[in-house]
Sequence to fold (159 residues):
Amino acid sequence: MDTFNHTGDKTMFKRNSLIQYKGGGYDGCFWEQNYAWIDARGHFHNIYSSGYLGCDTLGKLKAAYVNRPSDCDIYCLSNPAEAERCADETPISHLLGIAQWLDEHAPGVILQPKCDECGERFDGRLGCGDDPHGIGGIMQEYRRLLCPDHADAFDMVEA
Fold:
């Protein structure tokens, strides 16, 4: 685990930040979303990295941000507006996995997406994806995200 020192340079990531970036870069896939976490102490955590563009260290993540800033999105989850933006913009299958990862590794950090059925925000750890569809190759994504109340109404199980 790398420690992040606040040096004031443009590669600085705030604490409690989720970094979403284009990773991948291997045969059969040009890129795919990858994720890293800078925790409350400033330590780097690799949530998911893949291919030659994957960042399994803080140094690689900083380099990706410097060299490809438009391929990175940073969500400071201590900021309610940023946490809401993350919950609204992140692909559903990724959001469900990140919510579970945060529950295990960053207790108290909870993403609250909107239910596509009722429009209310809910604890993302309890969400359920609905209506999967192909997005190219063998990949699938959900069209809708449901809160526990509406997932139960459709006899669905949690992700």
The chain has two domains: 1-76, 91-159. Residues 1-11 have pLDDT under 50 and may be disordered. The beta strands are 17-23, 32-38, 44-48, 72-76, 128-134, 140-146.
